[in-house]
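notes to self, project folder thing:

trying the whole complex as one job this time. last attempt i did each chain seperately and stitching them together was a nightmare. two parts in total, labels are on each line so i dont mix them up again. if this works i'll redo the older ones the same way
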Amino acid sequence: MTRHLPALIIVIPLLAALFTAGSGWINQKAPFRIAVAALFLSFICAVLMLIQVVTTGIAMEYRMAGWAGPMGIVYIIDHLSALVLVVITAVSTLNLVAQKKSIRTEFNDKEGAFNALYILFTAGLIGMTATGDAFNLYVLLEIVSLSGYALIGLGNSRAPLASLNYLFLGTIGATFYLLGVGYLYIATGTLNMAELAIIIPQNMESGLILFAFIICLTGLFVKMAMFPVHGWLPEAYSQATSVSAGLIAPLTTKVTVYIMIRICMTVFTPEYTFGHLDISGFIVLLAIVTIVFGSLSALAQKNVKKMLTYIIIAEVGYMVGGFFLGNRLGISGAILHIINDAAMTLALFLAAGIFIWKTGGESRSDLKGLFAKMPFTMAGFVLAGLSVVGVPPTCGFFSKWYLISGGIQAGNFLFVAALIFSSLVNAVLFFRLFEIAFFEPFADADSHGSSHGSHTHVGALTIKEAPLGMLIPFLIASLTLIVLGLYSGTIVTNIIQFAIPTGVI
Amino acid sequence: MESIFSLVLAKANYAVYIILMMVGLYAMIAKNNLIKKIVGMTIFQTAIILFYVSIGYKRGATIPILEHHASPETVAHGAEKMAAHAMDAVDVAHYINPLPHVLMLTAIVVGVATLGVALALAIKVYNTYGTVEEDEINQQLRSG
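result (full assembly):
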């Protein structure tokens, strides 16, 4: 049974997606139930695999249809991918459970289709994380992208245009990656990651491999919204519905960063990426620009959801910069931040989902007086905000600590300065929201109705605590931030330590 | 001059795919009409497909299907003999590399799916704004 876990984790959601699409015709509640069950089973598979990998210390290898090595497609579950799989399945399940009510109102007759897309998206992410084949990764990347475009396109009236622009850039990114894989295939004659990692160090001087590396990385940068090619992200994520944003925002960029780490460490090997090539400095510089740009743009936003999307861009800069510092501390920080940032972004977007569900507005001023009206939600939101700022003992502090120590060890003080600057900006951003929510009196029904005319779908006077079905998953997500913070040492010494090749100091 | 010419000719497939790729990229960036952008995207993807197909090709080689020349006597000799015969016949130099072509079957499917999603989104955009010209949409967004 445990032998087949790496296949089950992706087969269960893929089959469920098939059934979900049709089940909406038979029973209106069936799609949601099937989706939650499938995602939860995947989550259990991921946890079991993580336990097995940590206890045995050996990576699991699964041969699809029994074909070994370079001929067939293998799925590799090592420390790094097992950890990311747990994050993906947990975030996806929690978000779906939390947003049950808003799915019902927003997609009442399309619930089957929506849930199918939701599961497909998660299945694609799981496959991307687990696969050990460079071309298979491309196919799964496109599964994720296509279901992502559709999920975003289902949002408000501006969403289709935002989604189309995302589709153009996303296709360029994915196609660049495909081109890079093509050149790798010309240079090495294989698509299997393990075999690529053997052949590439023997041909460090090859121009083909250099070209393949640069093209692959460019494609991934487009996908994860690094600075010059970030334009699609804020628009696409802020126009999506709460439930889609709560799935896509925490996971897409983080998994793409994971793919970058996988490509740079497992395929091209650290000796090539950090030792042979002299581009780390440039990429860290790009990451610094991304951090500063993302933070400053977030400062300029009045719309809460849009502000959060710019914070995501800044966080991408943290992870990419931290990874390309090229030392053990920086890479540990980047990997730890993948987990922490997924959890933080989930909590923030769940909070935003509750605000929009309750007040109907997305603007900063819609938060007025909400502390008194819904104390538990606001407590969770404060926790998430503090975590993004980086206040101990929330998890955001610990990954930043690793990133900053990595920056100091590498002697890259500009990166350290950018991190601290971004933390300060985040403090301003969140305390501004807390202040509005805590001190400003709740706007009464009349002025609320007149200032936000069309989008008050819940009377202002009736606003109180969010329904339990939303609140409990949200509070779980926020409390996870503290748990992750308290156990970050354990995560680093037991899991991340083994995910980094021993060659990296 | 001669050497440059022969170099270009020898690597014509790369030149063609890069030209096509740039045509597609240009259309995606510079065109105002969303449908033209989608067409550009398709050209861009097709360029990569051509690139993959061309790298699997070999001059004078044939499609990678083993020839058995299944005459009555080989059939009579049974399966073992046939397998041995097939082993003799396999000479990689005579066959083109099928792997890039097989990969492209998947990439074509992905391309078609992307095109479908893009067109569906374009229809939704048209239904919302009554146009697929980007500048007119932006004008409506600014004024509204």
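what i see at first glance: Chain A touches chain B through 24 residues (CB under 8 Å).
need to look closer tmrw
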